Amino acid sequence: MELHPMTRRELLRGLSALAVVGAAGTACGGPEPKQASGTIRASELPSFADPGIVKPDLKSAYPGGMNAYFRYPPNPAAAFKDKPLGGGTVKGLTYTFDPVAPGLAENPLWQKVNEQIGGDLSITYAPSADYAQRFATTIASDDLPDLVTIYGQVQQLPGLLKSKFTDLSEHLAGDAIQAYPNLAGLATDSWRETMLDGSIWGIPIARPPVSGTMFARKDLLDKQGLSLQPTTFAEFKDLLTALTDKRGSRWACGDPGGVLGMITAALGVPSAWIEKDGAFTANLELEQYEAALEDTRALVAAEVFHPDGMTATNNQRNDWFTQGRTPLVIGGFVGWSKYEMWGAAVQGFQLATILPFSYDGTTKPVHGRGAVIQAMTAIKKSDPSRVKELLRLLDWLATPFGSAEYVLRNYGVENVTYTLKGTDPIVNASGQTLRLVPFKYLSDGTQVIYDPGLQRVAQARFDYQEAALEIIDRDPTLGLYSETEAAKNAQLSAKLTDARTEILRGQKPVSTWKEAVDTWRKDGGDTIRDEYEAAYAKASGSR
Q: pTM for the complete prediction?
């Protein structure tokens, strides 16, 4: 399950506790909902165009929503007629969440990729947790690879991009992106996050806007005759109480922070910032946020959470859920299939989800919005012909579901790393290791919902996604940059998290949250607000 560090606008979103894990990205269609208006001129953004490789079984009605496929199309054709490279070597630097893959000499999948692209793709990569140091060392050396993934918080980002990397606007803005049809299939909101001062600086590693999801053990709820979907907070509270059996070592949920996120969502509190007439307000400044803290503190006192829930790791909480010790868990939308996989060995296991609900029947709930990109890949300063060649390679790496290139990158070589079950490629034990080369963190295509042989799971994932996108809150900071947030994010976030934890544990009264917010404002929150408002005004042309 992919985890990621706080990106440059997830400080407050993380505190809402619904942005737990990044998820997969995006195929687009239909009207675009809840999008910040006027922040970036449309002519500066790449024009969206669906690559149209194969028709989905289920097509999302929302930009950023993933299309669903029940099986892989038979006899997939190559999307590229010509090899993107004309020989030579391309060097890339990126990160990974996986173990190290076998090197090129021992990796027939990687060798086949190099054969198909017409050159040698040499990738240096580090574990995601160590990438910031590797990135900083590389930048300081002034010996940049051709492609560099920018991931996590980076201070002085505008200056860094302008001094060392290529402004890609002339190649990608507007209809120019038609030269790279697979990159044109990435969601417009993902491209917004690659822009600074009206220029495009990288290729987005796109993710869908759906953030954390509350998963439920439907089999355990059914056993008690409990309704799965609350319609109000009172019903949700009754559900938590009914699921808790301390004598039987069972608690409703492992994570108070996740439940806080459900309550703020029920009250209509957005994931991070609210913009009105150019003025920005942080979610944690709202009275509703403090009210949600009060409710969550009362639930902690009622002991409906696992006693170790506040200090547990995500892996521990997931184990409790699989074991049935906590029938509810907050996890990343991307992790859905893994919960199904973990539960396959549990007799009677049935997975379901709980959508945000109205607090009292009158409030309009929202679904937390996740980051629309996980990272972006920039191209070092190069001559125009080299930039075009590198963009062709990144376009090849973004060939979508349904293509032969997609099969190669994700599954490998038939009868070597995978075999077909019907038309679905099933990776063998060797392939599971060989396919860990992190191509997808340099560039990747529009992500999809695809669970081979499990149409029920694909349908459920799609249905939840569409319901979530219907009520997702908009992010007015898309395409905006705050240097103070980049510099102070970790410090400010830690202080707020500590203050919230003390309140939830009963060590301090809820009223002290106002003091924590005041401290946040003085230490940098107000400056972040000012920088966002100024960037919004500049991009909107109102100043």
A: 0.88
